[in-house]
Amino acid sequence: MRSIALVVVLVLLTACADDGVEKVQPYDRAPVPAVPDRTAPIDPSTVAADGTLTARVADGEYWAEATAVGSGRPFVLFDLSQAVFADDAYEMIAEPHGTLQVLWDDLDSVTVAAENRQNYSVPGAELASLIGGNPPSADAPADYRYVPYPFLLTIRHGQIVEAHQIWVP
């Protein structure tokens, strides 16, 4: 009888165990992203003649503006550049710069910034919808509205994997 009870307890503990993966829901509050003193520079050799960046973009954090979303194809288009930060201001280094797109589902982490400086986690599809001019989903706080603040992007292996919007005055 004791061995049956032990097996039942082990089964229950296994069933209730945390899988170690944090579950984030749309518009959960998120921490303000840490901003480096400067973002990675754009290597001119990675900018194609049409202004797009090639897959040779170095891993790092880049300053970017969201410029478009795909219609029919689920992507967000960003225009990447470098930014340098000092005190409470920043300077964007306009040249060189280039565009890079990411499929919504390929974004591992996305946050948007509200006018009140609160950051919220959103899925890539919600980000694309907001950039496309649509209202926030029903999960958004009542006072949230999208503002086209710039983004701090993380690139790994030539792909955008994180997009964190940064509140700027």
Q: Count every beta strand, where a strand is a DSSP E run of 2 or more residues.
A: 8
Estimated structural class: mainly beta
Radius of gyration: 20 Å
Shape: globular
* Strand and helix order: HEEEEEEHEE
Q: Indicate the mean pLDDT.
A: 86
**Residue fraction in strands:** 35-45%
Strand line-up of the largest beta sheet? 1-6-5-8-7-2-3-4
Helix fraction by DSSP (H/I, runs of at least 4): 10-25%
Number of helices: 2
Parts with pLDDT < 50 across at least 5 consecutive residues: 1-18
End-to-end separation in angstroms reads 68 Å
Major sheet attributes: 8 strands, mixed
Identify the notable features of this structure and list them briefly.
2 helices, disordered N terminus, 169 residues, 8-stranded mixed β-sheet, mainly beta
Report on this structure.
The protein is mainly beta and about 170 residues long. Helix content is about 15%, strand content about 35%. It contains two helices and eight strands. The protein has helices at about 1-15, 125-130; strands spanning about 30, 60-70, 75-85, 90-105, 110-115, 120, 150-155, 160-165. It has an eight-stranded mixed sheet. A hairpin with a 2-residue loop joins β7 and β8. The chain is globular.
Structure summary:
The chain has 2 helices and 8 strands. It has helices spanning 2-16, 124-131; strands spanning 29-30, 60-69, 75-86, 89-103, 109-113, 119-121, 151-156, 159-165.
Task: Please write out the topology.
Layout: H1 2-16, E1 29-30, E2 60-69, E3 75-86, E4 89-103, E5 109-113, E6 119-121, H2 124-131, E7 151-156, E8 159-165
Parallel strand pairs: 5-8
Antiparallel strand pairs: 1-6, 2-3, 2-7, 3-4, 5-6, 7-8
